[in-house]
Structures are given as structure tokens and as C-alpha cells.
Amino acid sequence: xxxxxRLLEACPPLGPRLWFGVVLLSLTLPAxxxxxxxxxxxxxxxxxxxxxxHPADETKKINTNLLELERRVQQEKLSxxxxxxxxxxxxxxxxxxxxxxxxxxxxxxxxxxxxxGVTLHHVSRKYNRVSASISDLASMHQxxxxxxxxxxxxxxxxxxQKLESN
Length: 166
Prior knowledge:
Elements: H1 2-10, H2 15-49, H3 56-60, H4 64-75, H5 80-86, E1 91-92, E2 95-102, H6 107-113, E3 118-124, E4 129-134, H7 137-144, E5 149-154
Antiparallel strand pairs: 1-2, 2-4, 2-5, 3-4
């Protein structure tokens, strides 16, 4: 009994430290194990929600609203014209109008951008920009594959509010 008492006197009290350690472990272990499972669930959900696959570099060049346009056409079975109009994008007789930003424009790049399904409206060599319309979504991804293309954005129709006069 005397040995036990000496041993307890020699060791500092562990109560508060032990309690803190237990609480810390009980909070961090579930969080750490949850990170892995949430990441796996998110990755699986993303795989299921993407009906078509495109290279990552290609889709990085395409504005997210155009990717949403593509999703609406595919999943909601809307026509390209109808989906574009619903999203306030400019729709011409040739299709949905786009603004294409490039890192350079010369005759060769202009020739690469002139492809089936794409109508070029205006080419600005000074500002490295092109106004074009696409008649199908595959053309948008073909445009993104051109190395000189930096970004593809929708062209939005200006909206004004008509005021009634009294």
C-alpha cells in the first residue's frame, strides 16, 4: 500500500490532460475518416452528373454558363435556341452567339476557327477577339481545342425595361 501511495505522489495528476486528449481524439478521428468518404461521394456524384466527358483543358476555356447551356440541352431536352433564349444569351439565325478570346489572331488562326457549325461575325486582330455563332454544342468544344483560344463566353442580349408613359 505504501509503494502505491509513493507511485501516485511521484506522477503528476493526469485527469485534465487525459480528459483533453480523449475529447480531442473523439473530435478529430471522425472528422478525418469523414473527409475520405465525403471526397469519394463527391467524386462519384460528379461522375454521375456529367453525361459527356471532355478533356479538362478544353472545358477550362469554356464559360460555366455555356456548360450549363449544354447541360440544359442534354438533360432537359431543350433545343439550343430555346435554352440560349431562356438563359438571356443572344440567339441569331446561325445559333447561339459567342465571344471568343484568343492569345493571337492571324490568317491561320482565323482559318482554324472557321469550321462547320461555326459562323464568324467579326474578327478583331487588334483585341484578339472573335464574335461567332454556333449551331451545335460540339462546335463549342471544337473551338476550345484550338490552342490559341483562351476563353469562350456567351454573348448576352442587352435587356432594357420599357417604361409606360401616363
